[in-house]
Amino acid sequence: MARAEIAARTLRTDRWWLPPLTTFVGLLLISIYAAFRTFQGDFYWVDQYHYLTPMYSPCLTEECIPAASHFGRWFPALPGFLTPPVIIIPFLLGFRITCYYYRKAYYRAAWASPPACAVAEPHSKYTGETRFPLIAQNLHRYFFYAASLLLLINIYDAVLAFGTGVGLGNIILLVNVGLLAAYTLSCHSCRHIAGGRLKHFSKHPVRYWMWTQISKLNNRHMLLAWTSLIFVCLTDLYVALVASGTISDLRFIN
Amino acid sequence: MSYQGKFRVWRGDDSGGGLEDFTVEVNEGEVVLDIIHRLQATQAPDLAVRWNCKAGKCGSCSAEINGRPRLLCMTRMSVFDESETITVTPMRTFPIIRDLVTDVSFNYTKAREVPSFAPPKDLAPGEYRMQQVDVERSQEFRKCIECFLCQNTCHVVRDHEENKEAFSGPRFLMRVAELEMHPLDTADRVDQAQDDHGLGYCNITKCCSEVCPEHIHITDNALIPMKERVADRKYDPIVWLGNKLFKRS
Amino acid sequence: MPELERHSFDVLVIGAGGAGLRAAIEAREHGMRTAVLCKSLFGKAHTVMAEGGIAAAMGNVNSSDSWQVHFRDTMRGGKFLNNWRMAELHAQEAPQRVWELETYGALFDRTKDGRISQRNFGGHEYPRLAHVGDRTGLELIRTLQQKIVSLQQEDFKEFGNYEERLRVFQEFTVTDLVKDGDRIAGAFGYWRESGRFVLFEAPAVILATGGIGKSFKVTSNSWEYTGDGHALALRAGASLINMEFIQFHPTGMVWPPSVKGILVTESVRGDGGVLRNSDGKRFMFDYIPEVFKDKYADNEEEGDRWYTDQANNRRPPELLPRDEVARAINSEVKAGRGSPHGGVFLDVSTRLPAEEIRKRLPSMHHQFKELADVDITAQPMEVGPTCHYVMGGVEVDPDTGSSSVAGLYAAGEVSGGMHGSNRLGGNSLSDLLVFGRRAGAGAAEYVRALDQRPAVSEDTVTEARATALKPFQQEGGENPYTLHMELQQSMNDLVGIIRRQAEMEEALQRLEKLKERAQSLTVEGHQQFNPGWHLALDLRNMLLVSECVAKAALLRTESRGGHTRDDHPSMDAEWRRKLLVCNVDENGVSVEEKPQIPIRSDLLDLFDRAELEKYLTAEELS
């Protein structure tokens, strides 16, 4: 028995290619910006107001500005073009890359598998996440733990910056960690660990409550993924602009 | 409030076929299935279409409208422009029988491969006690009307016929999740999901959730939680290391 | 002539709704090789449309409930015309049948202490309906379907073949039953997909084909409901009873036109929804019949209090039995107080918070949103009566489901007697389970006791094939669609919710003409998945059954339950003692009176004498 003979790759008449294209362009621009800032190796610390960009936190190598290394400089100077963020970026990137939302986004936008629902994909073979390397997507949970740790450090940085007064930068750092926290908490792994793995919610009322709350956040996981990602870049940009003296911080107190 | 609507309907069988043009009367408040019925009654008496309740409850009239998997009875004509040509085609993923009717036996085969509900042996009828919060997750999945639109849209089998053997599709992975979350089911469903039903093929691109006429959160509430359970057991480096070190199998 | 596909089974079940599947499970568990034949795909039967719940006196919510109370409610609902033995078995066994579903994997809504929750429904004294939101029928079908799969998995383990002892033939239509002398010998039919004919040889056949609603224009029933089982039974020599009683559900959608008739569940009213006319008046207070005056609130305040305190208040009249509410709506619309599209308003939006409505009535919310673009949390619904259920059906032995023809059984809507002149909401799903199981067991026992299996003669097969192919043989005849529309219009207008002698006589004349025209139907195309041909064959059944309905309705000169005569508006205790029995022979359809079996005295004792006086004759009471 054969399938119905329909030659067209899709009969969709709407602009189905628009969402994957937008996603692709968005992710590309952000990647370019993040790569540039990572390898720039400068303008990540505003000494006067103790602003540290989240992209460089924690700063753990010898070349870090000592004041920006809130937890000490554990590693020797990195060779060549490498900069301090390369220590932490694998974890941050790992968390986002293995995130269930981003997987959908880039499988569709970058790999066209599928480009959109009911639009044929261009690949002749497909094994999904059953074998290496994509089977490693199952490690999302461990990246979640790592990212949670980095989030705590970001929160610490944001609080520490209030020691010198209050400026627009403080507000931005605060909003940034708020969004990062919301994104991290809304993660599917977090939802699973908090309560989703239980068979009987009724026997664990507190974990059920947590699961219920996280489920509400989880409904907005895509929104939080994008807003937190864009806002991290904006936060970094603000810190970079202030650190480089391009603009001056708007101060409310001191 | 009537107008003459333009339609292109796929007609044919497994030996071939193609899109045929029709002009049909459309009245206020009608759905696509009404138009197909009018076609049958006035222009194409042998046009094959599968339908039953006409209220979105039985999941029989699954097809593709302008390339999108939909129920014919739940697609109102008012969502289209009067000048638009509406294309109606059979579900692509399943073998064609005739016109808009496909052979959905793939789904019944897969349904049989999911081991049934296994209640505790010592529990007599009438003694079952379950809390509402404990049944709600599985209840969501039991809203499924088995229209098989999720199975049809899933690219794992839609674009790769060869994966049908190894992959049960969203509907039946959701059935595994339903039993896994059933408060009184005693069977172990986690390895089954991964090894027997091909959970790993799913790359969570969410088309199943997008087309579900019952708005079940198939991906977020069934597939991802199953993937997380599999991760608990199979991809937990700590557990893996422990097993290696202490030579447990 | 292509070779005929043949199968041999112990028990054939025709229909895969609740009754058919439960019967098949039972027959298979009795060791019978069983086949289920259904017109749709497996799991799509009309049972999925049932919304409210399954009535069973489990007493989970109110412990005063018992089978006796359920029996009483059922008899009252049916205006005492019910087969009392069926009503008794039904009330006694329904709880076990519901609990059994849990062992198959059903997930009902729960009470606080973890038992099955039960909801209020029209005509039931206590909260009695086990439910899953408002999609209970779907849960029932899926659960039974999954039980069948689990039995097939057992066979696979044992024999390496899923279908060793239980096989489903889906998208298959039975056109005729086959007999060997007086006994059932099998069934003849065709695959809808290919049009190829198949002969099933089996000593026992269980009819579970549901109702006849497709003979009416406005109906909540799906296309499958063409009275196949009723007609197969008639042609095989069995008799139908109570065919004049047809339930018009009071609340069907009236707009948009394409979904006119689709059901709005009674739970909307059970959960607080009220009926209003175009003046905004809750008109049901004007329609409480004498026999129900002491059970229903006569003012809005008391009615509203009932939702929270059922012990000290009488229930609101929106929850009167379905026939009463349907007639009331009909009268309001006729008096010019209807809604814009010819119904009345059913409003839950002003009675419950939006969140609560979405939680309790999810499918209704969905249905109105998607089909009518109406948000029931903010706007009232427009509703009107729709043909919903036929109380009449094959006359069966209550304990075994056996008809008067040896080897022929019936269960569910296609059987008659259980619901008397009117069925209570929720009693349908329990009926399917209780009598589905009994018919499965009855057929199994019959087959086991046989010492010689019946044989099928080749002549019968040739004849059945010729009948089925007739529409292809003729040219220049009429289109079956036209004929079907005319039949629906006639039945709706002339044998509908309110009946008059002259109109029914006209209906019978029209039916005669339709029958003649049906002799020369013409179908185009070929046998493969040909809807025109399918309809032509179904039409034969619809015409036969419609004639039974019209003839019985004309004879019964009283109004009772699902039979309302404008020219005989009151109930007559003498008529309660009579059943109208429909038969078919070479002279056509005939309807005759038959005395009703008197109610067993211990069951009569469950009622107050004052109540019995409303229904029974002085002679019966003495």
Produce a short descriptive summary.
Chain B: Its cofactor is [3Fe-4S] cluster; [2Fe-2S] cluster; [4Fe-4S] cluster. The complex is a heterotrimer of chains A (254), B (249) and C (622). Chain A is mainly alpha-helical and 254 residues long.
Kindly describe this structure.
The complex is a heterotrimer of chains A (about 250), B (about 250) and C (about 625). Chain A is about 50% helix and about 5% strand. Chain A has 8 helices and 4 strands, in the order H-E-E-H-H-H-E-H-H-H-H-E. The mean pLDDT of chain A is about 95. Chain B folds into 2 domains: about 5-100, Ubiquitin-like (UB roll) (Roll); about 105-235, Fumarate Reductase Iron-sulfur Protein, Chain B, domain 2 (Orthogonal Bundle). The longest helix of chain B is centred in the C-terminal third of the chain and has 17 residues, at about 220-235. Helix content of chain C is about 40%, strand content about 15%. Chain C contains 19 helices and 21 strands. Among the domains of chain C are: about 245-385, Flavocytochrome C3, Chain A, domain 1 (Alpha-Beta Complex); about 475-575, Methane Monooxygenase Hydroxylase, Chain G, domain 1 (Up-down Bundle). The mean pLDDT of chain C is about 95. At the B-C interface, helix 1, helix 2 and helix 3 of B face helix 3, helix 4 and helix 10 of C.
Which helices and strands, and how do they pair?
The complex is a heterotrimer of chains A (254), B (249) and C (622).
Chain A: H1 18-40, E1 45-46, E2 51-52, H2 89-97, H3 100-109, H4 140-160, E3 166-167, H5 168-185, H6 188-196, H7 205-218, H8 221-243, E4 251-253
Antiparallel strand pairs in A: 1-2, 3-4
Helix pairs in contact in A: 1-3, 1-8, 2-4, 4-5, 5-8, 6-7
Chain B: E1 3-13, E2 16-26, H1 32-42, E3 62-65, E4 68-71, E5 85-89, E6 96-98, E7 101-102, H2 105-112, H3 132-141, H4 149-153, H5 155-158, H6 170-180, H7 190-195, H8 207-211, H9 218-234, H10 237-246
Helix pairs in contact in B: 3-6, 6-9
Chain C: E1 5-8, E2 11-14, H1 18-29, E3 34-38, E4 54-55, H2 67-77, H3 84-104, E5 118-119, E6 129-130, H4 136-159, E7 166-170, E8 172-180, E9 183-191, E10 197-201, E11 204-207, H5 228-236, E12 240-241, E13 246-253, H6 267-270, E14 274-276, H7 300-306, H8 322-334, E15 344-347, H9 354-360, H10 362-372, E16 381-390, E17 393-395, E18 408-410, E19 415-416, H11 427-449, H12 458-473, H13 480-494, H14 501-518, H15 531-555, H16 573-576, E20 578-585, E21 588-595, H17 601-604, H18 609-615, H19 618-621
Parallel strand pairs in C: 1-10, 2-3, 2-11, 3-7, 11-18, 17-19
Antiparallel strand pairs in C: 4-6, 5-6, 8-9, 9-10, 12-17, 12-20, 13-16, 14-15, 15-16, 20-21
Helix pairs in contact in C: 1-4, 1-11, 2-3, 3-11, 5-15, 9-10, 13-14, 13-15, 14-15
